[in-house]
């Protein structure tokens, strides 16, 4: 069974989701349908991934009723002042509502974009709203100008970078953290960390499963990605064991205090102008 997280508006979502970045066409349709029938109840995508139509097909292909799965997506920065962008996202995904919608990056007019999310939330098109990749300063700016406290923030988070910069503030404000790059983007060094190997041997689990279980015991949501059925299934089998507090602390102590993905003025400038593949 998936562990669940209660959001600050009372909506309950699964901790574990399937991440869909970099997967397109029939591959992602098949992987979404497979994931939903093998331990996942939440699918994470984004306008920018360019695969919402195929993800939507996978939701239908799963054979599950709409209330049996959760859909999460992110508004692309070039659409932050486009008043029809949320309705068009619903159409691409072929759903009547989205469970969680986030602003993808803290660029462009993110206040206006968040107000679009607030409006769609009040209209019942979105069940929860949030942001991704915001700093504490940017969250404070948002909170001072907007009405609804974000329910979720998706950030880079894994044992080498356990979201230290934003965790205390988000906990204080009731903003649930959800980890992207939960496996450190498949980081080879992380998979053979002696502390993790030892714990994996004790519980008869793979090191990937130990890392993913760490996220859930830390209270994070997580959206691991994989292209193969084998890894997709393996990554969902993480709720049948529990590590001790000491083991969780050993894994957290591996932090290098540096993200793998480096945010720079150049990277933000690029994200601000890079269009989604369905834009002109
Ligand atoms: P990840 O940390 O989930 O690593 C995935 C990689 O690890 C796979 O490509 C595979 O090579 C490897 N892997 C997966 N399962 C494995 C296993 N059991 N054993 C060994 N190797 C395994 O990183 P990701 O896939 O790049 O990102 C996950 C998701 O996070 C994305 O699909 C996307 O949904 C989300 N994301 C969001 C943002 C954002 O800005 N909000 C940015 C990046 C990613």
Number of distinct helices: 12
Please give the number of β-strands: 10
Q: Roughly how much helix do the residues carry, as a percent range?
A: 40-55%
Annotated CATH architecture: Alpha-Beta Barrel
Principal-axes shape call: globular
Number of individual domains? 1
- Strand order across the biggest sheet? 3-4-5-6-7-8-9-10
**Percentage of residues in DSSP E strands:** 15-25%
Q: What is the CATH third-level topology name?
A: TIM Barrel
CATH C-level class: Alpha Beta
Bound molecules: nicotinamide-adenine-dinucleotide
Q: What does the radius of gyration come to?
A: 18 Å
Q: By helix and strand content, what is the structural category?
A: alpha/beta
CA-to-CA gap between the ends? 43 Å
Which segments are poorly predicted (pLDDT under 50) over 5 or more consecutive residues? Answer: none
What is the ordering of alpha helices and beta strands?
EEEHEHEHEHEHEHEHHHEHHH
Query: Biggest β-sheet: count, sense, barrel?
Result: 8 strands, parallel
| CATH homologous group name | NADP-dependent oxidoreductase domain
Summarize the structure in words:
By secondary structure, this protein is an alpha/beta fold. The protein has helices spanning 25-36, 52-61, 85-93, 110-122, 136-145, 167-173, 188-191, 194-203, 207-218, 229-236, 245-252, 265-273, and strands spanning 4-6, 12-14, 18-19, 42-44, 70-75, 98-103, 126-132, 152-156, 176-180, 221-222. Helix 3 links the parallel strand 5 and strand 6 (98-103). The longest helix is centred in the middle third of the chain and has 13 residues, at 110-122. The structure holds nicotinamide-adenine-dinucleotide. Nicotinamide-adenine-dinucleotide binds next to helix 10. Nicotinamide-adenine-dinucleotide binds at residues 19-21, 44, 104, 132-133, 154, 180-186, 206, 208, 223-226, 231, 234-235.
